[in-house]
């Protein structure tokens, strides 16, 4: 969307985006015990992609991330609903979450929670929606 | 899910496959052949019920639907519903067979036609089998919808659309009032089940009893085209003829009759019910038969005759309801015969009217016109059609040896019996019953003769150059022939039908008398008053038919401006005009106006509630101290908010709004809410980008030149909203109605295995909220996408259509 001569922002963005992505994933995973979670992680992830839009043009980003973000949002909602339905299989109310502690090879004693699955849905829905809106508006000529 | 449920759902399920069958197979095989299977299977399956039901048993099956509200898909098969279901499936099969020849597979959109038809069939079966009143209501409205779609099948025609809209408006109006009646009834009896309603004893002492009855009757009367709601039926004749034969004479219009019969045990024995049902029925009978004589279109004639016959059945049900006044006794059996006559005539009407409609369709198909003035002399060209018309027409006129004669005689018996009674003040007005019945029968005779002789005798006057008029193909004649055979067979063997079909139905209308109801139908019962009345009808009718030309002009004296149709059109026009004017007054198209409505509403409702319930409680006692950082951030927030108001360029406003957002997130940090702060930060980043993107498209910010009142309104509204929201926030802090629930969430590590309470709330404790939120978010995103991406294409298309 701009003339491609912003050397500084481009160089910075290339590094920054990776850092933001990592941070977003960290936010997402730490959500269970520390600040973060699906919503924030998703939005942070989306903001990294938005930074790419601002730095490079939409076409380039679309070529490198060939995802239909409407689908991403829809899949996110679907995952969230399915995890809800999944609890019906165990004869507990809709969207009941479960958690447990397991001993995994490298991580040692680890907590695994079904809430993470649900949170993945939330994150995908947020990423998909944010990017759908931004891309639609930014793309509108 | 039982076979019974599948029976109702089968047409719906099959309808899903119809478009595929049409697409793949229609070139070779007419889609109708596949569809035909469904009513045939249903008919034979229902037929196997007859032995069980006729021996007095019933069947039920329940499928939970909304068990929490006690609304279940309960199917109840008894004599009455089985008789209706057999008519629905039987006539349905014949109509589909007929339509295979009537509807051209090359020119017509058959997939639409059969999908609607199957939808109707399923809805109608559901209607008669439902035990739950709300399930019944759903199916009731579904029949209205499918009728609407079928009337508007040739939607290119102005008249089809008009007729469809009219039938929709009237029957849905009736359906809604019926729903209100059902709700009242369920409030009185505290049940949704018709069977429980019937067995409830003391309903009639409740003050809601009569309103519920009247509302339900409005539903039944609109559906069954009773005066004055009958006007939709003649216009419904714009539907293809198979549909007119099926929906608008044999089945759907009988839904009202079904409902009245079904609820007779609940309401019967009440004077209001007696007078409304029999009175409206008789008026409809007279109105329909008199109007039928003046029609020049064969289908319109049949439509009015259907109205009149429906009135006849309705009035019989009304008269028969008197049986329940007496409880159990000889008197009640005298009245009960009227109910039997109603059921018998219902079956007879389905047979002869169905065949007549099909024959009229044949005439229309072969000659290209339905105008009586143009038709004539078809007797030699179409001998089979002529025979069928004679059978149907004479049955309709109530002549032997056709089934109409039997039920007509019973009708006369019923009116004569009623006239002699003295309950419900019958001694004052009762004498009118036989008179109206007789006069209407004379007119019925006349229009039946018009139908038979004006179409088939005389010299042919129609001009049809492109092809020779000849008899229809055998496939088209088959259905009316089967019905015609039934017309004759029912005359000679009425007691077979009575034993297996009619008496069980009769017993389910009058459950208190069940077991002792029996009747022997015989064509000849000596020279009694009924026979004299029939002979009078024939003699007088023949004379009037001969001199039709002499008195036909009388109809022209009735002014058009007094017809119900005129009032309907006038009402519709003014309704449209008024609603358009009202809507245009407030739907201005300016966003500013809409915001004014929304905010004014918030001020009035929230402010009003605060004032009325004394919600303004401002309590500072528990507040923490304000430290210097907080004060600084608040001051900065105020400054950036004011900057937005007075900035000269958009860029400044965008930056100021962004600054405001970031300041809020600082506030969250100060209050030690890291989750909120993080969210606010990221949201603010994304929003600012969004603003910048939109900014690209927006025009320069200009100094707004507007009138003072405009600005004053804006200022008032914004200050009002600000004040209200502030008061709400402060009052919320000052009011403690309940103990805080946060202690529960503090157990999040034990309950959800999460140390982060906020996240545990989001994904676990209040997970459903989150799920719906992301759903809303996604829908909003798709909404933005649709608005932006599809707007140009959509607009072009719309303009192309106009």
From TrEMBL, chain A:
Q: Where is the Na+/H+ antiporter MnhB subunit-related protein domain?
A: 8-131
Q: Which residues cross the membrane?
A: 12-31, 37-59, 71-92, 112-137
**Which one Pfam family would you cite for this protein?**
MnhB
Q: How does it sit in the membrane?
A: Multi-pass membrane protein
What subcellular locations does the record give? Cell membrane
Keywords assigned by UniProt? Cell membrane, Membrane, Transmembrane, Transmembrane helix
- In which domain of life is the source organism classified? Bacteria
Q: Which GO terms describe its cellular component?
A: plasma membrane
InterPro entries hit by this protein: CPA3_antiporter_subunitB, MnhB
Q: Which PANTHER family has this protein been placed in?
A: NA(+)/H(+) ANTIPORTER SUBUNIT B (PTHR33932), NA(+)_H(+) ANTIPORTER SUBUNIT B (PTHR33932:SF4)
Return the similarity comment: Belongs to the CPA3 antiporters (TC 2.A.63) subunit B family.
Q: What is this protein called?
A: Na(+)/H(+) antiporter subunit B
**What is the originating organism of this protein?**
Robertmurraya kyonggiensis
Automatic annotation (TrEMBL), chain B:
Which intervals hold domain NADH-Ubiquinone oxidoreductase (complex I) chain 5 N-terminal? Answer: 68-114
The reply on keyword Ribonucleoprotein is no
Record Pfam families: MbhD (PF13244), MbhE (PF20501), Proton_antipo_M (PF00361), Proton_antipo_N (PF00662)
MrpA C-terminal/MbhE domain residues: 713-789
Q: How does it sit in the membrane?
A: Multi-pass membrane protein
Where does this protein chiefly localize? Answer: membrane
What does the record list as GO biological process? proton transmembrane transport; sodium ion transport
The cross-references to InterPro entries, in alphabetical order and at most eight, read: CPA3_Na-H_Antiporter_A (IPR050616), MrpA/MnhA1/PhaAB (IPR005663), MrpA_C/MbhD (IPR025383), MrpA_C/MbhE (IPR046806), ND/Mrp_TM (IPR001750), Proton_antipo_N (IPR001516)
Q: Which positions fall inside the MrpA C-terminal/MbhD domain?
A: 636-700
| Name of this protein | Na+/H+ antiporter subunit A
This protein's species is Robertmurraya kyonggiensis
Its lineage opens with:
Bacteria, Bacillati, Bacillota, Bacilli, Bacillales
């Amino acid at each position: 969307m701009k003339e491609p001569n912003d050397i500084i922002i481009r160089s910075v963005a290339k590094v920054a985006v990776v850092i933001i992505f990592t941070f977003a994933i960290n936010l997402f995973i730490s959500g269970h015990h520390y600040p973060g979670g699906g919503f924030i992680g998703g939005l942070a992830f989306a903001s990294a992609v938005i930074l790419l839009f601002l730095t490079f043009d939409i076409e380039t980003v679309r070529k490198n991330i060939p995802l239909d973000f409407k689908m991403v949002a829809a899949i996110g909602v679907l995952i969230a609903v399915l995890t809800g339905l999944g609890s019906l299989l165990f004869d507990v109310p809709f969207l009941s979450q479960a958690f447990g502690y397991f001993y995994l090879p490298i991580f040692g004693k680890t907590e695994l929670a079904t809430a993470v699955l649900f949170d993945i849905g939330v994150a995908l829905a947020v990423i998909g929606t944010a990017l759908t809106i931004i891309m639609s508006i930014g793309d509108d000529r | 899910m039982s076979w019974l449920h599948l029976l109702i759902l089968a047409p719906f399920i099959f309808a899903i496959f119809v478009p595929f069958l049409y697409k793949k197979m229609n070139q070779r095989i007419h889609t109708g052949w596949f569809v035909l299977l469904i009513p045939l299977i249903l008919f034979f399956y229902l037929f196997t019920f007859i032995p069980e039901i006729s021996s007095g048993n019933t069947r039920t099956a329940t499928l939970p639907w909304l068990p929490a509200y006690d609304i279940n898909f309960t199917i109840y098969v008894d004599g009455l519903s089985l008789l209706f279901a057999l008519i629905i499936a039987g006539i349905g099969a014949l109509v589909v067979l007929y339509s295979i020849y009537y509807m051209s597979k090359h020119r017509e959109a058959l997939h639409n036609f059969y999908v609607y038809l199957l939808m109707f069939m399923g809805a109608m079966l559901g209607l008669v089998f439902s035990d739950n009143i709300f399930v019944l209501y759903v199916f009731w409205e579904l029949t209205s919808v499918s009728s609407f779609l079928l009337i508007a099948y040739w939607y290119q025609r102005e008249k089809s659309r008009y007729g469809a809209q009219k039938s929709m408006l009237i029957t849905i109006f009736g359906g809604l009032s019926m729903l209100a009646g059902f709700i009242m009834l369920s409030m009185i009896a505290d049940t949704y089940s018709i069977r429980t309603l019937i067995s409830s004893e003391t309903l009639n002492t409740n003050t809601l009893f009569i309103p519920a009855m009247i509302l339900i009757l409005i539903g039944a009367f609109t559906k069954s085209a009773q005066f004055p709601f009958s006007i939709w039926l003649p216009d419904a004749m714009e539907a293809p003829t198979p549909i007119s034969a099926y929906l608008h004479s044999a089945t759907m219009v009988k839904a009202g009759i079904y409902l009245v019969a079904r609820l007779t045990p609940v309401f019967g024995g009440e004077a209001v019910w007696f007078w409304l049902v029999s009175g409206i029925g008789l008026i409809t009978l007279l109105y329909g038969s008199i109007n039928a004589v003046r029609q020049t279109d064969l289908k319109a004639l049949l439509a009015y005759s259907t109205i009149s016959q429906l009135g006849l059945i309705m009035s019989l049900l009304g008269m028969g309801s008197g049986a329940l006044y007496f409880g159990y006794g000889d008197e009640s059996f005298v009245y009960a015969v009227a109910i039997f006559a109603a059921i018998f005539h219902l079956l007879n009407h389905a047979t002869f009217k169905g065949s007549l409609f099909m024959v009229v369709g044949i005439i229309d198909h072969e000659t290209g016109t339905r105008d009586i003035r143009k038709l004539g002399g078809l007797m030699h060209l179409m001998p089979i059609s002529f025979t069928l018309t004679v059978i149907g027409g004479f049955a309709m006129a109530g002549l032997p040896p056709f089934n109409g004669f039997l039920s007509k005689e019973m009708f006369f018996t019923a009116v004569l019996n009623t006239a002699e009674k003295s309950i419900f003040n019958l001694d004052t007005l009762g004498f009118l019953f036989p008179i109206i019945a007789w006069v209407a029968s004379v007119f019925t005779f006349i229009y039946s003769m018009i139908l038979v002789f004006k179409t088939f005798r005389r010299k042919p006057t129609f001009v049809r150059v492109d092809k020779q008029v000849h008899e229809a193909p055998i496939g088209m004649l088959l259905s009316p022939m089967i019905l015609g055979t039934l017309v004759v067979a029912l005359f000679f063997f009425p007691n077979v039908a009575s034993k297996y079909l009619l008496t069980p139905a009769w017993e389910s209308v009058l459950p208190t008398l069940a077991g002792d109801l029996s009747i022997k139908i015989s064509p000849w019962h000596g020279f009694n008053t009924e026979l004299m009345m029939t002979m009078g009808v024939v003699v007088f009718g023949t004379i009037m038919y001969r001199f039709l030309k002499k008195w036909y002009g009388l109809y022209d004296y009735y002014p058009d401006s007094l017809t119900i149709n005129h009032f309907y059109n006038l009402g519709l026009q003014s309704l449209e005009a008024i609603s358009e004017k009202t809507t245009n007054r407030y739907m201005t198209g300016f966003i500013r106006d809409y915001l004014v409505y929304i905010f004014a509403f918030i001020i009035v409702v929230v402010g009003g509630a605060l004032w009325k319930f004394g919600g303004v409680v401002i309590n500072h006692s528990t507040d923490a101290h304000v430290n210097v950082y907080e004060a600084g951030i608040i001051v900065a927030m105020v400054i950036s908010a004011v900057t937005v108001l007075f900035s000269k360029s958009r860029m400044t406003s965008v930056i100021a709004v962004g600054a405001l957002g970031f300041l809020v997130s600082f506030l969250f940090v100060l209050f030690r809410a890291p989750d909120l702060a993080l969210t606010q930060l990221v949201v603010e980043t994304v929003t600012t980008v969004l603003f910048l993107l939109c900014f690209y498209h927006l025009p320069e910010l200009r100094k707004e030149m507007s009138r003072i009142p405009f600005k004053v309104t804006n200022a008032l509204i914004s200050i009002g909203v600000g004040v209200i929201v502030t008061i709400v926030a402060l009052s919320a802090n000052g009011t403690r109605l309940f103990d805080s629930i946060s202690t529960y969430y503090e157990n999040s590590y034990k309950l959800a295995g999460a140390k982060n309470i906020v996240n545990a709330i989001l994904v676990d404790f209040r997970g459903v909220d989150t799920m719906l939120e992301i759903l809303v978010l996604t829908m909003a995103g798709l909404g933005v996408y649709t608005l932006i991406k599809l707007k140009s294409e959509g607009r072009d298309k719309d303009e192309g259509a106009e």
